[in-house]
Amino acid sequence: MKINASLQSLFCAVVLGVNQSNGFLASVSIVRRQMITLNAHGPQENGGVFGFQDRPLLKKFGQDIHRRVMDSAQGRHRKGKIGAYTSKEIIPRLDMQCSTAAYGLNDLSIASRQEIREAFSESENTFNSRLHGRSSGSGCVIIRLQGEDAVAMHKLVNYADRFFDQVDSIEGKEVADVGVFRVANHVYVGFDENVNDGKMQFLDTRIFSGTEGGGHNAMLLPIELQKLMGSASMNDAHNGMNTLFDIGSQITSAVLRMPSKSANKLIDDGTSVDDTTRVLANKVSNSYHRLIRYLKPDENATGAAFEPHVDSSFLTMIPMPKLPGLEIWCPSRSTTDDGSREWGEWVQPTLQADEQLNDGNAYIIVMAGHFLELTSDGKVPTCIHRVIPPSNKNTGMYQPRISGPLFLRPRIGEDALLDVDNDLKLESDKSSTEPMTNGLYHEKGLLDECDKMHLWSAHDVIKS
Ligand SMILES: O=C(O)CCC(=O)C(=O)O
Ligand SMILES: [Fe+2]
């Protein structure tokens, strides 16, 4: 990635010039940090540009997810047992590689589109139950990368560590002072050093696709990062994000059987689809990368550092952090004698016995967001997850947990309209033995209601 001086000054001009009333800036407003904080569930705003408040099934979809999150928060365990499920038993694992990778995994070990679909889909009573053991499926899968893809992931993880080292240094003060900028509705970048009453710190980074579309002109925002981290580090960060974007786009289009034209239209992979647009918001990715540092919990703190929630993404992809803490809700697939569902279990996604974080491979925790549940017509459950702080009884050397999720989201541009017949389930897989079931979370009529809708606008309805 080359960041040229004129591009930087263009962005600075845009930032500084928001109050001017020329057309280029008309749809952009950028607000300084004093007025905005990033909260643990993402920045909240009322209303939205697109306002589809009259979609009852979509609203119900959001309420159902909310109810599942509340149920999980009570943390009821299967048959009252704690730790009855293990990651190995119920969180599926796949080998993948970037579509551009030059290293060769043999075809047999790379997951097929059908295997990807199976791993993410729930399995109440279908043939893929072997993948989820006693769970009906959590929407979480661990992906293993090798070769150059693994190197790109390790560099992204090192970048995260270096960023927080820099924040703690004198120079880091500058980034802390930059704070959070609003670029457009739900579009923020910047550093918040005090999220959720000091429980954690967030750096949200987005890709500005540059004046000539994506590719070589793209740069990461906030631009102050460049000065703090240096261009080699920013290159590593951008490369790592591109690896995640590539894997995430492959997974999303496999799960939804999307043709590549639709994937390009709907999935924001950090590139711009419209080189000619003069609307700044369309040049800043809706997908974003977040660095999180969990701070030492209060002596008296109880409960989760990050409460149970789902993400507003197609997929959230986290290079396996060095320290544990993330827990996945794995609903049970069995029912009790009276026919009611047993609840489930919180499970930490872990490596298998013969794997280590430094074995040369890279491991990514991939979680389905609510957009994947929506567009898969309820076949893929959105992954409910939480983060448990390190035990505060352990008063020895405190090591803050660092995590770096990438949120792969729908595009925000007005062309990103969902065309159900043409975008979803088009790819006919004649040889497939997959039964066409509706899935546990299917809601009759929901996708019809969302046909021809600007997909990202569902965010407002689901959250409301
Ligand atoms: O810290 C983690 O690993 C997960 C963070 C998370 O769930 C989020 O940022 O939405
Ligand atoms: Fe999350």
UniProtKB/TrEMBL annotation:
Keywords recorded for this protein, A-Z: Iron, Metal-binding, Oxidoreductase
Iron found in the keyword field: yes
SUPFAM superfamilies given in the database record: Clavaminate synthase-like
Any one GO MF annotation of this record: oxidoreductase activity
Domain Fe2OG dioxygenase: 284-410
PROSITE patterns (alphabetical): FE2OG_OXY (PS51471)
Family, similarity comment: Belongs to the iron/ascorbate-dependent oxidoreductase family.
Name of this protein: Fe2OG dioxygenase domain-containing protein
UniProt organism field: Cyclotella atomus
